[in-house]
Amino acid sequence: MISACLWHNPQVEAASGQIRIVTQDFAPLQWDNDGQPDGYVADFMLAVIDRVRDRLPVPVGPFEFLPWKRAMLMARLEPNVLLFSLSRTPEREDWFEWLGEVSPYGQYFYQLDTRPKIAVDRIEDLKTLKLRIGVQDGGNLYSYLKQLGFDETGNMVPITDYHQGIEMLYLGRLDLVPLTGFLAEASACRQGFDGARLKPVVFVEALAQPLWAVFSKGSDPQLVEAFREEMARLRENGFFEETYADHIESWQKLACGQ
Predict the structure, then answer these.
(1) What is the Cα–Cα distance from 163 to 56, expressed in whole angstroms?
(2) How many CA atoms, within 13 angstroms, populate the side-chain half-sphere of residue 164?
């Protein structure tokens, strides 16, 4: 099985013509589970790769879990790089070969219920308040908030990823962090915090859209098309929906001890 050889080793260099798999640790979508790729997106893409390799004799490298900015840069500079899970934005449209959707996605800004309630109706209203808002550096939310002028207010605090954001929120170093709605509580529980203390403040409606898998520009066109076709087939036969439901249910129970 291909999954047996796709371990986490960011030091491995891709061989010529090999598919290089890069992504960010983002449970339960894709994450490094004791040296093995896990998650519903990881399982979905592994199944796609198995089907593609039945059609094309293509070598596949290991999963590489990297900081998001580095993974994005790699996918923009090297051919045959497979990257997921990312939002499809107008700015990114010409950067990649878009393969298909891999996950629903929608973020809220969250605060702790132990802090004074932040009552706003729109994202823009946050600019008028003295808040420390954790935002992943290089992500599409960071770009969106800059467009709204948040970089001029000094409200944005760059963070590496949501793990760091959750920790800083619970330690009182941030007032707000963006988290995926259906994962927020379990994400906090998994880091040892009381996820029930998270309270949604405002929905990031402008960025509520599915996440995608992409190939870098310059990738083999035959390979790109094979991935598109196999991803579509696995969605049509219900494989993705079943994998998604199983992972979400088990992850929520394990994370918060339910």
Answers:
(1) 38
(2) 12
Please tell me the pTM assigned to this model.
0.70
Phi, psi for 7 (deg, rounded to 5):
-90, 170
Is 36 in contact with 27 (CB distance < 8 Å)?
no
In percent, the amount of the chain with pLDDT more than 90 equals 68
> Closest Cα to residue 150, out of 122, 171, 169, 172?
122
46 CB contacts (<8 Å, ≥6 apart)? 2, 3, 6, 37
Give the separation between CA 52 and CA 239, rounded to whole angstroms. Answer: 16
147-181, pLDDT tens digit by residue? 999 988 889 999 988 999 999 999 999 999 999 88
Rounded CA separation 188/167 (Å): 8
Strand runs labelled E in the chain: 19-23, 31-33, 36-38, 60-65, 81-87, 96-103, 107-112, 133-136, 156-159, 177-180, 198-203, 211-216
For tokens 């010409």, name the residue: 94
